[in-house]
Specification:
Structural class: mainly alpha
Number of domains: 2
Helix content: 55-70%
Distance between the termini: 95 Å
Radius of gyration: 38 Å
Strand content: under 5%
Number of helices: 16
CATH class of the largest domain: Mainly Alpha
Length: about 425
């Protein structure tokens, strides 16, 4: 018999060699997953050695028992290859009720293969060391078919991280191995199956590499976003603290307005983007006061008309400061319009009702409440009860009635 060792060994050996190098050089893959690939490579190498032994032993003076042992081990190991390939697919699912039944076909195959020592019901070798298949001789092929079916089913049902793309990949892998199993059954040469499993391992390895690379990119983007968000918050806090520092009586005012505003928006069912935006708007609603003289801001006597006009200009200054923040184009809303009134009698633009952006209507309620309950250079703080009554009176005139109701509920809950 002419044995083409090049055909039998070249593709599996080269493929496994490259895969082992990839695994050895890979510092990103999880150690547990890397172990699964190493194990699969070792099984393919062992199966390859056994198959070589099956082909070589008939040309030696070995006994039939040794040849039968090599064949039995080879038949047993082939479905084991598929079992452990499935174990890579269901790597996050450690339920014994799934894994134990999956191993039963391999046990059946092993019993059938090793029965050749006692009976020829599965296969046998004659005195010339020629192979003869028995009634149960197709058991290893049937078992491999069972594993292929299980592979497809489990890719859709197990509780791991399998996504749509991975499921499609698994189906394609199963089809490749089905063809390889059919080739082995028809031609009696496992080189196709061994090469197919090796190729599948390499493709699946590359898939995991792409997933790891994708996850790394996503994580890097998340880190950048978090850093940008943190940096933005630091800038916002610095600006707010700078504003509050101009008036020692209102220290923390911007922070409290932002907190109240975010809680009101949360109770209105707004999403995280809205909550983040209104928090920034609340923190910066008075940023225009940076451009107002400390003497005017901290004046304890009644302001003159000119001084009052200067104070009112902080809304325009605030807009100018925030207008060019491109990452949040409407950030300036709170700064410009937080002194607008629901009845249209506010400033600087006399906006009325729902023409005032929702974020600003929320901030206005929070601003009025905190202004009343905080110590000011020109007036002592009001009691919570008095502030609640004023909010109630301002419904529909100065402030949005729906938002007032939410603020009143917050006050009552905090006071109870």
């Amino acid at each position: 018999m002419n044995i083409d060792f090049f055909t039998i060994n070249f593709f599996p050996v080269i493929g496994i060699g490259f895969l082992l190098i990839f695994l050895w050089k890979n510092s990103h893959m999880e150690e547990e997953l890397k172990f699964l690939f190493y194990r699969q490579c070792m099984l393919i190498i062992i199966e390859d050695l056994l198959y070589n032994a099956e082909l070589l032993l008939p040309y030696t003076n070995c006994s039939k028992e040794l040849l039968t042992l090599a064949t039995a081990l080879g038949y047993t190991l082939r479905p084991v290859l598929l079992y452990f390939l499935i174990s890579i697919i269901i790597r996050q699912d450690n339920r014994k009720r799934i894994r134990l039944p999956l191993f039963i076909p391999t046990i059946i195959c092993a019993i059938s293969s090793f029965s050749a020592f006692f009976t020829d019901i599965a296969y046998s070798y004659d005195d010339m060391k020629v192979f003869h298949r028995g009634i149960l001789g197709w058991t290893p092929h049937i078992v491999m078919a069972v594993y292929l079916i299980a592979m497809i089913i489990l890719s859709f049902t197990h509780k791991g991280k399998t996504n749509k793309f991975e499921r499609t990949l698994i189906i394609e892998i199963s089809l490749i191995i089905i063809v390889a199993v059919a080739a082995e059954s028809l031609f009696g040469n496992t080189v196709v199956l061994r090469t197919a499993v090796t190729a599948v391992l390499i493709f699946y390895y590359m898939f995991f590499q792409s997933e790891i690379y994708k996850d790394e990119i996503i994580e890097e983007q998340k880190r950048k976003i978090e850093m940008e968000a943190h940096f933005s918050m630091q800038i916002v806090k610095t600006l707010a603290e700078t504003v509050d520092a101009k008036d020692p009586y209102t220290k923390g005012h911007s922070y409290r307005v932002a907190e109240y505003s975010r809680e009101i928006a949360r109770r209105m069912g707004k999403n995280e983007d809205f909550l983040r935006k209104i928090y920034y708007m609340g923190m910066l609603h008075d940023v225009g006061k940076i451009g107002i003289s400390d003497a005017i801001i901290n004046k304890t006597e009644r302001l003159t008309r000119d001084e009052y006009d200067i104070i009112k200009s902080h809304t325009i200054i605030g807009e100018d400061v925030l207008r060019h923040v491109t990452v949040m184009p409407d950030l300036y809303y709170g700064a410009r319009w937080h002194h607008e009134r629901y009845d249209g009698k506010g400033y600087p633009d006399g906006l009325k009702g729902e023409d005032i952006p929702l974020e600003v209507r929320i901030i206005s309620v929070a601003d009025v409440y905190d202004a009343m309950t905080s110590l000011r250079s020109y007036s002592p703080p009001r009691t919570i009860k008095s502030a609640r009554e004023e909010i109630e009176k301002a419904k529909g005139t100065q402030l949005d009635p729906e938002i007032c109701d939410i603020m009143i509920k917050m006050i009552d809950e905090a006071d109870s």
